[in-house]
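Entry:
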Amino acid sequence: MTDLLGALVGRLEELGLQVDAVKHSPGSPAAHDVDMVLSRGASRQKFAMDLKGRATLSGLGPDRGKEANHLPRLVGATSVSPRSADALRRADIQYVDAAGNAWIRFGDVLIDVRGRRRSNAHDSARTAPDGTGGNLFSTGRAQVAFVLLQWPGSWKKQQRDVAKAAGVSLGQTHNALAMFREAGFGPGGHRSDSEFLDLWVASFPSGLARKLALATYRGSIADFGKANFEDPVFIGGALVSGEAAAGNLIRPATLTIYVAELDPMLPVKHRWRSDGDANITVRRKFWHTPLDETHDYDGPLVGLRTAPALLVYADLKASDDPRVRETAAQWRERIAGLGPSI
């Protein structure tokens, strides 16, 4: 860990920052590993730094900076993959790795470095702790997490019922529940439902959303709500998500729908094209609403149901458009009653 800290201090200094780091001893009561003060010019910020091996969003553990006088969190890692870097940014977690990749902001300082590869000189840092093993939100586990977040009562249901709702095998469900509980989530756990939600949503764009993608198109979305949803092209129904599901909060510029199957006649009947910049995304509907649960939200499009509110939030949050991300914050307030802390 000392070797890793030394490498990270070097990378930060190369980026033009002045670094003052105090590493805590193993017996220290501090919840984080390092008090790190970064400064440049008139800007100065103290961080609660956690040292990791290969940093992944799901392996970070709780935000312990909240226990350290509300200091902002900074993750120092041997390596941060491009996928993990994207998830960390979406979760608003700052980081730096031994190769010099970093996303740090304070005062008038913004550092955004991507694409650097670690050289052999940094290999000694591999012995740093890795945190929770495995990807907490692999696509199968992410489907289980969705069910637990959308319908919190599922934590107490039979695993076979959770598996059916999530569209995964019983074995995958058992593994996911065990990992979530080991990580501190669920009834009686030491980590909040709100943090579970934040982590799941941050992992969604580069994980589950990609797996579910069926097709993207370019076309008009204005008349989609007038479609005949008894048409065979909507096998198993269609559910709208993202901007189009939040039409009372934002003027939709994109359309995201979930269908059980993709009929090749769907884009033909709506005159959607597969070339150019896509504004229409079609994804696979993976979940099955439990018989004793519901997500009866009245969508703004006539004759079309909205997707579960949690999924709408994830699709809004995944956007890079500031106006859509602002709408995501408003949507989250709307679904505050989904779970105890969501």
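The two ends are 35 Å apart (CA to CA).
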